[in-house]
Amino acid sequence: MRVLALLDGTLADPDAPLIRVDDFGLMRGDGVFETILVVDGKPRELGPHLDRLARSAAMLDLPEPDRAAFEHAVDLVLANWTGGAEIALKLVYTRGVEGGDGTPTGFALAMDISPKVMAQRAEGIAAVTLDRGIEPGLMDRAPWLLLGAKSLSYAMNMAAIREAERRGAAEVVFTTSSGSVLEGPTSTLIMARGRTLTTPPAELGILPGTTQAALFRAAGREGWTVEVRPIPVEELYSADGVFLVSSVRKITRVHTLDGKTLPDSAELHAEVADLYESEY
């Protein structure tokens, strides 16, 4: 099932041809997006997602998104959803059509979460490390690379996942060329040692995670230590738990990395997943 709402406040047929072939989002990936988890009709972290949409748009020199219009589109979609209890809600915002009047294209689209993702949540995943070819400081030195923006230009990320599949894995942990952990193509990495949760700093050129922030809030309340610092790849192999987290995948454990079986983190995963759910 899918439900689509446009920024003018109208519902549209998601199977109808609605996006012009000369839209910059289609032709050049010139736009931004957010994906939000909705549980029992309630979107999780909607405010932070809209904040991040605006930050990404500013990095691309897009007009500021109409927050009220997006909020209305979200309400309209959810009011008309009659499917499952957990859904993925995607907000998309592009530069509009080439040669047009500069009006951006924007919409909210709700859809079912794939069975593959649901299975990975429960069973965990195998991942490989891949060099992303960036180093600390590049985000500040080269802002035109849009490091840290959630843009529609995901071709490289999808190519990385295909490479992982060729290597017998399902996911990727990106690294700097010097071997420091970054993020997944569509997720934030969190490492656990004892009752300490660690994630890499956004200054490395990665996207600040809304799910990671929610988990860290919950963990902090329960007396866990949470920290943001660079993580050498070597630390992952001996960690008590390695997790890839995002809105739709929630907290997904990595059980195998680069063909090496990691320490059993099934019980820790359940505890960390419960921490995350306690936020809601």
The percent range for helix content is 25-40%
What is the CA-CA span between the terminal residues? Answer: 25 Å
What is the name of the CATH architecture of the largest domain?
Answer: Alpha-Beta Barrel
**What is the level 1 CATH name of the largest domain?**
Alpha Beta
- The general outline is globular
- Beta-strand share of residues: 25-35%
Structural class: alpha+beta
- Please count the beta strands (DSSP E, at least 2 residues each): 14
CATH fold type of the largest domain: D-amino Acid Aminotransferase, Chain A, domain 2
Enzyme class: lyase
Protein name: 4-amino-4-deoxychorismate lyase
Family: Belongs to the class-IV pyridoxal-phosphate-dependent aminotransferase family.
Keywords: Lyase
Structure commentary:
This protein has two domains: 2-113, Aminotransferase class 4, branched-chain amino acid transferase, N-terminal domain (D-amino Acid Aminotransferase, Chain A, domain 1); 118-277, D-amino Acid Aminotransferase, subunit A, domain 2 (D-amino Acid Aminotransferase, Chain A, domain 2), CATH 3.20.10. Strand 12 and strand 13 (250-257) form a beta hairpin. It has helices spanning 24-28, 46-59, 67-79, 115-123, 138-141, 155-166, 210-221, 233-238, 266-277; strands spanning 2-6, 11-12, 31-39, 42-43, 86-94, 105-112, 125-131, 171-175, 188-193, 196-199, 225-228, 241-246, 250-257, 260-261. The strands form two sheets. Strands 7, 8, 9, 10, 11, 12, 13 and 14 form an eight-stranded mixed sheet that branches. A six-stranded antiparallel sheet has the order 2-1-6-5-3-4. It has 280 residues and is an alpha+beta fold. Keywords: Lyase. It is an enzyme of class 4 (lyase).
